[in-house]
C-alpha cells in the first residue's frame, strides 16, 4: 500500500507547477493568433481546458481527502459530482487524444481533406464535437439519471459506485470502448506515424516536407508516449484482474500502484505540451530569463 502522506505530497508537488503551466499554455494558445488558428493545436487546447477543470476541482478534493478521509462526510450529490469529474474527464481526455492521433495522419499525409472550410467542418470540427457530446451525455446519464440507485462508498476517494456498471454489457462497453480502443488507437497511430514519416522522408527525399510537419509529429508522439507509459500498465493489469479474474497479492498490489499512477496523466500533460511546442519554449525561456546587473569598475 502507498501511504496517504506519500500520495498527498507527490500529487501536490506535481499539481502546483502543472496548474501554472496549464494557465501559461492556454493563455498563449488562445491569444496568439498563429497558435490559435493552427488546426493541430485545437485538440491540444481542448485537452488543456479539460486539464484545467480537473486540476481546479477534483485534484484539490483529492488532496483534502488523504489527510481527512476518516472525518470527511460527503453528501450524495457531492459524491455524484466527484465521481462524474473523476471518471468522465479522464475518459474524455483519452478519447479526444485518440482522435488527435488519427487526425495527425490526416493533417500530415492527407492535408487536402481539410483544405476548405466545408471539409474542415466535417473532418476536423465535427468529430471533436461528436466525441464531446457523446462523452457528456453518456456519463451524465450514468451518474445523475440512472434507472437504479447508485451506491455510496464513504471510505473511498471516489465515494460513489454507478449502479449501471452492475450491468455486465454496459460495464464492458465502458471499458473496451472508452479505454481499450483509445489506448490501441494511440499505440497503433504512434507506430504508424513514425513508420509513415520515415518512409515518406526516405521515398520523396523532401527535407522541406519533413520540416513542415516535424512539430506536429514530435508533439503527437511526445504526448502519446506519456499516455502509453502511464495508462498501458493500468489497462493490462485491469484486464488480468477484472477480465481474466486473476487475483493474487502481486496483481492486487500492481493494480493499486497503476490506479494511483493513472492520476498523473492529466497533471503531466501540460509539461509534455510545453516541451513539444518550440514557440512556447522560446517564450518560457524569455519569461524565466533573469535580468543581469553589470558591475562597472570605479575610478
UniProtKB/TrEMBL annotation:
Source species: Adineta steineri
The protein's name in its UniProt record: G-protein coupled receptors family 1 profile domain-containing protein
GO CC annotation: plasma membrane
Keywords: Cell membrane, G-protein coupled receptor, Membrane, Receptor, Transducer, Transmembrane, Transmembrane helix
CDD domains per UniProt: 7tm_classA_rhodopsin-like (cd00637)
Single Gene Ontology MF annotation: G protein-coupled receptor activity
SUPFAM superfamilies: Family A G protein-coupled receptor-like
Transmembrane segments: 6-31, 43-63, 75-102, 122-145, 180-199, 220-240, 255-277
Topology versus the membrane: Multi-pass membrane protein
Residues of the G-protein coupled receptors family 1 profile domain: 21-273
Record carries keyword Ribosomal protein: no
Keyword Cell membrane assigned: yes
